[in-house]
Structure prediction request, 607 residues.
Amino acid sequence: MTNEVDHDDQKSANSIIDEQISIKITYLQKLQQAVADHDDQQIFSLLDNQRYSSAIEHRENEENDLGIVNLVDNLSDELSNYLSANMIKFLGKTYPFFYYEEYQRGHFKIYFGNWWDRREFGELDVLNIRFVFNQTEYDKLTQSFQLAKENKRFNSGKIEEISKENDYLQSLIDNQKERENQKDELQGQLKDVSTRTGMPWESGKQKEARQDLVDQLSQLEDQDQQARDALKTIKDNESRVLALSKENTILSYEQKSIIDTFGNFDDFESANRNLYADYLNTLSNGKQVEDRD
Amino acid sequence: MTSEEESMSTASQLHSFSANVKEGLELGKKYVTLIDQLVDTQDNEELLDAAAQLAELSVDTEFVKFQHQYKPQDYYLLFMGRLLEMHDRKELSVSFDAGNKNLSSVLMPILGQAKFSFSLERSENGGAFFVEEITKQKLFYINLQRRMLRFNNKALVNLFVIELAQNQGVDEEVIEQAVYPLIAFTHYLKQDFGFSVDFGILGASNDTEYYLENTGLQLTIIDKLFVNTAETDYMLVNLSDRIGARLQLDSDTALELGVTPSSSQIQYWAFKVDDKRQAVSFFDLLVRYPLIREWYLDNRDELEVKSDPLIFAD
Prediction:
């Protein structure tokens, strides 16, 4: 039974293979032609027909034929590299503040801005036409926009706190002489209290007074110790303030860039969501990216 | 000794005396001829020749001494004044200072705010420094024999940027007018006599690299400038081809600070100023832009621009 060949099944298997291979060949030929013609729009529709037909042709329920879209999986880096040329030209106009570095074939880092110490902001996913932002950096930017509504800046609170600490430390350094005088005076008083022989019923009070003087002295000595460490702490704090101010500056340039291009943060985010359709529509308008202006 | 022999020896003594006096007088004659030449000639080379000779000449001999003489450093100042005058520049006014019996000079744009004279370099190299007398700043070194001139960047900043612009509130235009004759003088030395010159931070060519004294600059120093730009219309951007930053000041002028290309492990940093007309120097930017001036002065230990280390070591 197992060795018996069902000829009808055999025939249908043959035709299935034939048919499937033809589909694959046709798919690959179309892709080959599209690459030859640099018809990027066609390439994107072949790579993800489901998304393409829904977003561009508004036809839902076109499922991807998994048997064919996987055929070029091993070429994704090359395809990404190939498709990046026009896309980055397009993005250069729509997002003039983003810069890209292809750190390995088909993989692109995004940098926000060209200013000093700009931030690495995530990656560009060319095949899916989307930005994959670094979440931490993106959150900072989102927060900055919210804080801007209250006229605040991202690190201003922290900077203020550290500056206050520095003012305090500086005053400790400046008041060294005063503390010395105070200590001398307290020590004198302490001597008085210790040598004074009072009435027995005064001994509790005397003890209390003594303890009070000792506490005051040790408080001043704590301040002396703080003052000794203060110069270094002030320096450390200054470099922290510099780092925080730098981040504020970077964030303010980022906000300014987005406002200059998109008007506000919401429109920037909505542009990101619609990037796939916007880009492919630009291509399908029959105008190559180069002609746009 | 016969009387004949005696009179012979007296005669030879007198001859020898007269020869010595003649020699002294000849020297004196040469001296005044050179002075006339320095004052009157219309020829460049004759002018330089007179100044160079006078600066080296000791006119007194054992037999002939001249009570009234100018000092060697005075001839440098006279030479400078005359060279400028021959090019129709009248900003340097030379006069005799009865106080210290020196020739002294003023630059007309900052008349009353600074006084200049030369002071001799005492080492065997010779030459002299152009010094502002009140602040003792040695602005440049000149050597007429070796035909060279080197500006001292530290002194230029101390005098013009800190003392005059900042402390005395002299306008930036006036500062620029005041240094102009110094630049012109240096330019004439180069053009008329083929001097080797270093304009230092006064050099305006775009190729000029103003090297920092220190190597391996800490990037936090640039962070400070970056943070300060936040409140201005200027933006500090990354250099695309090397480590460093570029400050675009207006459509035509930019300041760069970057690591200069070299095969060495050590990072050599230098400023550059980029402007279409090649008319703006690093000095001009320090004078014109408070943003740059304050940052430079606040971080001077790290940012100080180097001068010729063989001459201005300290």
